[in-house]
Amino acid sequence: MVSVTKRSKVFYTSALSAGILAASGLAYAQSPAETTKKESLTLEEVLVSARRSEEGAQNVPVTVDVLDTDGLREATIVSTTDLQQNVPGIFLGGSGGPQNPLYVIRGQSKGLIGTTSPAVVSYYAEVPQPSWGSAVPQYDMANIQVLKGPQGTLFGRNTTGGAILYSPAAPEHEFSGFINGTLGRHKQTRLQGAVNIPLIKDQLAARVAADFHKRDGYVKNIGEGDDLEAIDTESFRISLLADYGALRNTFIYDSFSSDNDGFNIHPQTVYEPSALNQLGIAEEVKADVERLKALGPLVNDSAFDQHERNDRITIVNRTEFDFNDNVSLLNLFGYQETDLDYAPNIDGLGLYKSPAVEQGLMLAFGPAYQDSRTSIVKARLIDKTKQLSNELQLRGTAFDSRMEWLLGAFYLKNEPDEIGQINGTTVAQTQYETSIPGMEVGYTNGGAQHFFLTDESRALFARTEYDLSETLAVEVGVRYTEDEFELCLGSDTKPQWLGSDPTYFDEAACRRGDTDVIVNSAVVTESSEALTWTLGLNWQATDDVFAYGVLRHGYRAGGANGPIFSGDLASYQTFKPEEVDDLELGVKADWNINEIPVRTNLSYFYGKYENAQADLAGGVTTARNCTPTGSAQPGVDPDGDCSSSNDPTGGAIVFNIGDTSVKGVDMEVTARFTQSLTVSVNATVQDADIDKIYDQPNAYIDAKVSSAIPFLYFTNSVVQANVNYSIPMGKTAEELSLNMNYYKTSAADKGDTDIPAYDLVNVRADLYNIAAANVDVGVFVNNVFDEEYAISSSISSRALGLDSFVFGPPRLFGVDVRYNF
């Protein structure tokens, strides 16, 4: 690893920028003909579908960031983490690894556990993705759009934070395609490609795309299992486009599979007093944490053989029909099957001899458990779901096209994939070793919880935009939503052995309360409804200046905690919907300053949230000498029965903390100084407050409410800058494109702890169409200065006594070769 001090890092970054600028000046001085062309410098128009139809981003009344095909390639976007470092104001904290991203916009996300609805929904070809296992493979994409602020009037599910739109490349009626190969550090090999196949001239076409990606793990694992953070994914997509006059139909079948040995979690801080003292292992853990920190975040000592697997099938069918020039119909059908299974070492630590746990195991299971060793927290999540959705839109124009209108209906159902297969979460288990042959390693039954969730959402919506004049328009949207869920949940009655097939625990057993495999089981139902709306005023002041103001009322459905609570926790079995009133004011403008085109986009946002949903960690019975009182005891027992068997899953509970607010500014400045040089700087600056904390009927929760997390991974400021220098290369190549990307984020708040601030520099160089042979070659280096940085938190609990972080990748480099045909 190359060590670069902060001072030298700033020097090298500045030197690189200066080098590009100097090269630009030299090229400009050597190209007199370019002087006469200076007046023709322009910034490219960016097309978005933020309002469900294609239009210029500079005329859309919403804060939206877009990366098109070229932008995705030149930023070397291959994962959701790469997306975060190219779009300010979005945080992608791991909710269980790369295959289970947690999207955060303006402080809004989803609970880390249980049945919380997401505040930010990702969409694939405009079809909403499931809450779990929603990572989208980044290949053959037309663009990725990030919409900030409450959504729902036009897009699928109601959200209070935003939406992320992944748009795969569509079939075309001309034969074309590409093949791309990548070789990189840690034996990275990637082969991807796509081909357009015209089947019937101008009527029927197919596009076939595939991606095969492998890389060895860059985290050395000196414990059980292979090295971590490897990549092993296979993706395949076939799209069919049928175009017959007024009728247009696009069908997509997408298959994705990922299988690796887990992700890197590294312990950082030990807190006392905590549960570690209760277990009698605080000193051992502190020594282990110091040992691991000395080894560095790219060395892991796993307590068991971790894994992360995700298999997903997605089917999308989009049908469009034009009745006439003024009225059209759209039907969007989606079906997805998700099979997600991962077992991370979420505390980042090993096993320890705890007298308290050893005594409990011996009492429960016999003397064979003498000299057993136990963990702090391990985890496994298995989620097998199927999701069906359908959206119907009727849209058109009226009054000589002065009015655009849309009427729509939306339906979604997400449910367990099969009776007889486990579906839900198995989390926060205590791992132990025994002397029983064949059962040397196992999980206790103290926290193995299962959820079998059927979630349905129905909505009717309408939206219209009316031109009051040639420059002024009013936009109104309204949506009525009903959300229902039915949840069977319970706990294992026996240990689940590591490596065993857990499917013995199925939904049927949960529903019939089969005490051979389940305890404390029950069915919980909850429903909610809301009327949400949008009211906006759009002003096209000039051809190049667009201003807007929009008021939005948004909504996020309620949910449930598990297992079945009793006593003082009973009222926390479910939590209410969250609602937001949001104001956004924006100005988007293109200028010509001294013959240099400059784009400035600025938006101010302010949101007030009622019944804000918050995560609370550490809700577990911790004292060995706990005396049942029937009432919650602060710091000792959350429900009054002194039993850990019905404590909240993983010690985490979601509840309505109170009223909160978020305000801030999104900024974008882009300038094209010459035909060759373009510089852009983007930033988000924001602040969040808890305006009012509701009285809590539970003394245990009331005492801990100050450590609750209503704003998960909230960052006060993010800055992203990009320098692009492109020049023609004559007969050598059509163009040489140099890109430098800089990303800086402030600390990300997660309750009791902060994910430290960090900054990164990525560079890339591409030669396009070398020797007119349709061959492109690119060289990239990500994390140029080999920074060590945490991208999210795995465990963050002072009550438990530990902070463990998920660390980002080291310096990665490689070469791309693409053949276009």
From TrEMBL:
InterPro entries: Beta-barrel_TonB, Beta-barrel_TonB_sf, Plug_dom, TonB-dep_rcpt-like. Gene3D superfamilies: TonB-dependent receptor, beta-barrel domain. Pfam families: Plug, TonB_dep_Rec_b-barrel. This is TonB-dependent receptor. Belongs to the TonB-dependent receptor family. The keyword Lipoprotein does not apply. Residues 254-784 form the TonB-dependent receptor-like beta-barrel domain. It is found in: Cell outer membrane. Residues 58-163 form the TonB-dependent receptor plug domain. It is a multi-pass membrane protein. It comes from Spongiibacter thalassae. Residues 1-29 form the signal peptide. Keywords: Cell outer membrane, Ion transport, Iron, Iron transport, Membrane, Receptor, Signal, TonB box, Transmembrane, Transmembrane beta strand, Transport.
